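User: Hey, my collaborator sent me this sequence without any context and asked if I could get a structure. I don't really work with proteins. Can you help?
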Amino acid sequence: MKVKEVADLVGISVRTLHHYDEIGLLIPEETTESGYRIYSDRDLETLQQILFFKELGFPLKKIKEIIDSPTFDRQEALEMHRNMLWEKRNRLDQMLATVDKTILDMKGEIKMSNKEKFEGFDFSHNPYEQEARERWGDKAVDESNAEINSMSQDEKKAFEDEFNAIYRDLAVIRHEAPESDAAQAGIEKWYHFLNRMGSYSLDAFKGLGQMYVDDERFTKNIDRFGDGLAVFMRDAMAVYADRHQK
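Assistant: No problem. I've predicted the 3D structure and written it out in structure-token form, which is a compact way to encode the shape of the chain:
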């Protein structure tokens, strides 16, 4: 595809594509003798990756460092994008709810507490930052903070209900041994639930469980269902991953 065709397809300017070429971020596979840039399917895949990172706040310099890294894995990156987008979506949903309640408060229809006025604001680090650091290095995420919005309201509600039900069920058995049949049956439901959203390898599943404990924000949110749930899930997820490795 020529540069104008790519620009029209993606919805960005020709000037942007020229800039990406000039800084070595996206150099088309072929340039004709007359100077026309020709983009391959592989170039389009790279462009998609660049735009995902850009959407999540990564500066171009850092994006280049990531995708140029010999350890860069496109599937792992997409899994990271999905997780970050879910986090971003949940935060936006909370802020939208706060805006709606604030409007009602201004009209005198409800009375908000001071705490409610700031629900959805979160200036802590991104909960997936540690995983990004481990995969791509500190430099790649120092400045960083799938389109899933196609889900309907009914689908979203069903998703949230199932999500909460799994966590409530795990909270009930959190005092069981992580390797027990009950614990492993419960954590298997969580594994399959995650894999309906995308593709979680067993290693990624185990790593996610570790983040539940390493990241205070994860721990706080999970332990709302029951004290110690985050630690229980980490241990049960590790047992599950180790048992099912081929």
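In plain terms: The CA atoms of residues 50 and 128 lie 18 Å apart. You can pass these tokens on to your collaborator as they are.
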